[in-house]
Amino acid sequence: MITGSRPQQAQLSENIPMGKGGNTVVESRKRGAFMDISNTVNVVPAQTGVVTRSKAAAARLSANKLEDLDDTVMQGTTPARLELHQLVDWKDTIPPEDRQDLPNPQFVSEYVNTIFVHMNGIEQKYRQSWDYMARTQTDITERMRAVLIDWLVEVHWKFKLVPETLYLTVNLIDRYLEQCPNLPRTRLQLVGVTCLLIASKYEDIYAPEMKDIVSICDRTYQRHEVMQMEVDILNTLGFCLTTPSAMMFLLRYAKVMECDEKHFFLAQYCLELALPE
Question: What is the pTM of this model?
Answer without folding.
Answer: 0.65
